[in-house]
Amino acid sequence: MPELPEVEALAYHLREHAVGRTVTRVDLASLAVLKTVTPQWTELHGREVTGAGRHGKHLDVEIGDLHLVVHLARAGWLRWIDAPSPAPPKPGRGPLALRVRLSATADEATGPGFDLTEAGTKKGLAVWIVRDPAEVPSIARLGPDALALDRAGLAAALTGRTGRLKTVLTDQSVIAGIGNAYSDEILHVARLSPYATAGKLPDDALDRLAEAVQEVLTDAVRRSVGQDAARLKGEKRSGLRVHGRTGLPCPVCGDTVREVSFADRAFQYCPTCQTGGKPLADRRLSRLLK
């Protein structure tokens, strides 16, 4: 799932390549992704792209006085195309959900564009066309942005939270931008158990967590921004130390990276670095052994 660093990099790519161009046409290949009725997608035609930004894990493309807001969900992606096919896409065929075509410059024969795509059968990609991003319900509910949180802000966000630290870090209404992968990385760097109670961290643990949030996300943004959209997924994987590395040695201590699995997701951690050497119970594995 694209998280804060990847969405920040996609916004940067659009600022570099799309801003200043005019939307010449929008092709909607999947009506299900569009979560607003008005303004219609055809109202984007003829408007200039004036900016691109981010709200948590939402991408915000500013087009005239309208905003094309995108949440890529688990399997969605933005693909930049230097020369889109002139033929309109066929609805319901393949992963393509929406295509935005842009104007050409004086030295281009045809204008570029970008596709919003989603792989797999479980669909979650969502698109809103609004006049104010705050009209998007999931943006209105966002907590403070993870990159804007200092130690005091993090303490305030976690105060009174009785849930597990892993769960709270990925709750977008508490802290915006952190997902499954980077929460694993942050907890590993901070040397904290995913099952620690979020609102009961001692001062030294809170210090480590605040530093880890900034260190992990800032480094990921630095590595991601400037990359072509097609290379961002590989760049993300190459920088991960525990997430997605089940069975491999921890790069810090050499212990085996372990996994806890749930119905539709899993997280990874190092027992030596994070849980005092004690493996966490994997309920899915426990059920299989009964």
Automatic annotation (TrEMBL):
FPG-type domain sequence ranges: 241-275
Cofactor: Zn(2+)
UniProt cross-references to Gene3D superfamilies, sorted A to Z: 1.10.8.50, MutM-like, N-terminal
InterPro entries, alphabetized: DNA_glyclase_Znf_dom_DNA_BS, FPG_cat, FPG_N, H2TH_FPG, Ribosomal_uS13-like_H2TH, Znf_DNA_glyclase/AP_lyase, Znf_FPG/IleRS
UniProt GO molecular function: 8-oxo-7,8-dihydroguanine DNA N-glycosylase activity; class I DNA-(apurinic or apyrimidinic site) endonuclease activity; damaged DNA binding; zinc ion binding
Positions of the Formamidopyrimidine-DNA glycosylase catalytic domain: 2-120
Assigned keywords, A-Z: DNA damage, DNA repair, DNA-binding, Glycosidase, Hydrolase, Lyase, Metal-binding, Multifunctional enzyme, Zinc, Zinc-finger
Reaction(s) catalysed (UniProt annotation): Hydrolysis of DNA containing ring-opened 7-methylguanine residues, releasing 2,6-diamino-4-hydroxy-5-(N-methyl)formamidopyrimidine; 2'-deoxyribonucleotide-(2'-deoxyribose 5'-phosphate)-2'-deoxyribonucleotide-DNA = a 3'-end 2'-deoxyribonucleotide-(2,3-dehydro-2,3-deoxyribose 5'-phosphate)-DNA + a 5'-end 5'-phospho-2'-deoxyribonucleoside-DNA + H(+)
BP terms from Gene Ontology: base-excision repair
Keyword RNA-binding found: no
UniProt family annotation: Belongs to the FPG family.
Record's protein name: Formamidopyrimidine-DNA glycosylase
